Amino acid sequence: MQDQQQVRARVESLASISMGDLKQMWWTLYGTKTPKFNRVYLERHLAYRLQEISYGGLSERATETLRLLRARKPIFPKRQIIKPPAGVILIKQYRGVEHSVKVLIDGFNYQGKKYKSLSAIALKISGTHWNGLKFFGLRRD
After folding, report:
1. What's the whole-number mean pLDDT along residues 77-84?
2. In angstroms, rounded to a whole number, what is the distance separating the alpha carbons of residues 33 and 101?
3. CB 119 within 8 A of CB 129
4. How far apart are CA 128 and CA 33, in angstroms?
């Protein structure tokens, strides 16, 4: 086990060595080809690996906890999309023009054309990207 000063010096030296040397160090420490990321990514991961080798990696308990967390469902589940019932007509005043959209079972109808999302219609109306629910006043945030 190296002492803390030696490890610190090796970590600090990463900022001053060439990309070629960083790639060689990656191969030596990880045994794999260098991933296609930027220098900062390589420096951070190499610094972690140098410390891991010197001081040890995660404990078995921490590794098991991470494995269990990865297997669980996401902590923040995807927000459910709230769509008005089929048949509802959404009306939006935009720049002095009234636009109406009919909600379908599997999409939306605007000016006789079917769209998959309100966002696509908001883009058509405004010329800029919008969250469709927000554009039509169905969501506030």
Report:
1. 69
2. 53
3. yes
4. 42
